[in-house]
């Protein structure tokens, strides 16, 4: 590489890194070694033990400290004379506005979630600063370059939505272990320990007197003085026994399905557990919430071990008892967290008992935790490779070598001899609502759907806006901000509860809404189309947003799309994408993208490079048309 | 499985990677012993990767004394004179690597690679030779091949923004995962000597130019008595002359190897850190595969050039 010019471009550059995790640690090191002297780094996370296998700037003694700060200190040890500024903060904070972004020559993303990536993409577009984006999962990774007007933006292509399952698969007819996990985590755990007012599809009514006309009591209600173990057994018998029994009575359901087996605690567990293991009093010494565990008192040590039905049942009762005995205060506010040992134990046990009932293979706590916690596979080597590729692209951006920009895929299996496969970046998508301001179309029942539904399901979940403002013509329907007076807030809150057609300025078929985010400086138009009916299973949100990037490869899942679009969304993360609609769909918990990568692009002609991927070629053509 | 379970501490630390390669592979890693020689930027990256991955032990061999040149692309050497004065590169790197993962035993051995005997290499499962002469690579590879146990042998070099990895796993069996089943596959590797002496004429025209260019530079350094990487632009005329001879000897046209590539190789006297990260990452991945017996290994050369951004596998074996 032409060193003189390159070195001065590097020395004079001011760069912003977003993320100091798996990719971030490697990136900061490689930037410093490459001669960068002015680096800013934002990360809101603190260090955890499971980071230490790859985030090599961190030590055990750093657990709990800010990643950005510790990474900075570690790199300054081997490059003391450069300037690194760390921010222990969320990149979505208002302080990181367009002006903040404008001070940098290039932004480098090492993020772990779609939401933040989209946010940074918009700020980069608004500030007109180039973005180098990256992602890894297992041995797969990719680096892309986004320069306004020259290459596509991060959102020019739709990202695969998190997989959702039909409600009835979760509540009544699971066929895979993941269905049992979703049930245990989002229904049972949420019902027992979460917000009581949250919608929940779990059947809570006692079935004994189902035929009687009298409304029966909620089984989950626990009387003040009710013995915890008795309560646990009652829940157990209800969800694994009588609910299954009740479901079995619907013959139609089981015509072509394997019939589940009801399981009752008395058949699996001894009469009283107190004598068996001494109960829960003497099991946990430390009372730190995250370390309370049901396993030690049951003699269970190895998280990779497969527990049988009895062991799972013991863990179920013991974990439930411990929640009431040691963590009573939290009950009613808990949401599942993969780092909450007791929650993982409870969900593993519940999912396994349900799996047993439905004839689905059981899984170890280690595996169940991975599925329930959406834990992404991560190794140091891929992150190191991707970080190297990011720096190479960043240098090209600084030298304004636009012809040399590449997006690069890091593959697990070679494709046309390549493990690292560079391809030319796409041009901006003219129908992208983010970088090309193309209007979107929203099909919705304007008489039934409330403004709140549009804000939650579309503006926040789909458009990824942080501080939205919604206008209909000259009339302001909704906005958020600190500077609003009480009357305005009351007005907006009232609007949220109104159906679209009842709003002060009625939104009906043919209306056009303007939705803006002032922080992201993004504005887009939504043309409203009234539609009466929606398919509950296929269109669970009760509305359909369309109009961007659906042109290429709309029909079918086409194996080819798995090659280039997926990796970046499931990267290096600890928390998966959120569920759009809690009530009617459940999130996929395991990224499944790393299978098909690029096996379909074998070709004899080795002359072609950069455009060898037929899928990419066809997409490009479509774009240009 | 192999009996011993991972400890609770290991499971917690290696959680994310066990989800990639499984507990069995992690156990095999923790029992493996790796020898690493010649610690510049790329090898430093590699060492970080395998120490993080949790191999049993890493033994470092590099008797050079630390100079300011040594920490060029090597983040294992802190630029604090008090810390490194009078110490060898291996000793300083050892101290840094230990911090990355207390569960890995990192140590230093001294001596000249080419004179170390069979007993020495017998202690290792993996041998990595960084930045060595062609003669040393050949000699160590031959010694490793004489051992009764199979040692995974690698060489690695990075010149500027270009790099080469050579792999010799001898006769190697591995588990290949197909959609429905796992099948056992076997590969036969050529020795270093064999792989660098393959006649050029039958090699497919599309083969990475770096293979040929590296052979030219390697031979130049050997005949001129240079240390690996000790070239400069002033050597270019002699290097081009040698290229001409080699091309003629192999009955291939001279433009088989672009002059511009040779010029880049002789004039880059330091490693380009992003290339180090990439080549050290690929090498780390391959060593993990070889130890765990999981996944198809790279056979038998890998090339990366930051100029075109391609990372290519070439199989150049004796006929
Ligand atoms: Zn766009």
UniProtKB/TrEMBL annotation, chain A:
Zn(2+) binds at residues 153, 156, 432, 435. Residues 326-369 form the Ubiquitin-activating enzyme SCCH domain. Residues 600-610 have a biased composition (Acidic residues). InterPro entries: ThiF/MoeB/HesA, ThiF_NAD_FAD-bd, UAE_UbL_dom, Ub-E1_IAD_1, Ub_act_enz_dom_a_sf, Uba2, UBA_E1_SCCH, Ubiquitin-activating_enz. Keywords: ATP-binding, Metal-binding, Nucleotide-binding, Nucleus, Transferase, Ubl conjugation pathway, Zinc. GO terms for biological process: protein sumoylation. This is SUMO-activating enzyme subunit. It comes from Thlaspi arvense.
TrEMBL record, chain B:
SUPFAM superfamilies: Activating enzymes of the ubiquitin-like proteins. GO terms for cellular component: cytoplasm; SUMO activating enzyme complex. InterPro entries: ThiF/MoeB/HesA, ThiF_NAD_FAD-bd, Ubiquitin-activating_enz, UBQ/SUMO-activ_enz_E1-like. Keywords: Acetylation, Ligase, Nucleus, Ubl conjugation pathway. Residues 14-306 form the THIF-type NAD/FAD binding fold domain. Pathway: Protein modification; protein sumoylation. One of its GO terms (biological process) is protein sumoylation. Transmembrane segments: none annotated. Heterodimer of SAE1A or SAE1B and SAE2. The complex binds SUMO proteins via SAE2. This is Ubiquitin-like 1-activating enzyme E1A. It comes from Thlaspi arvense.
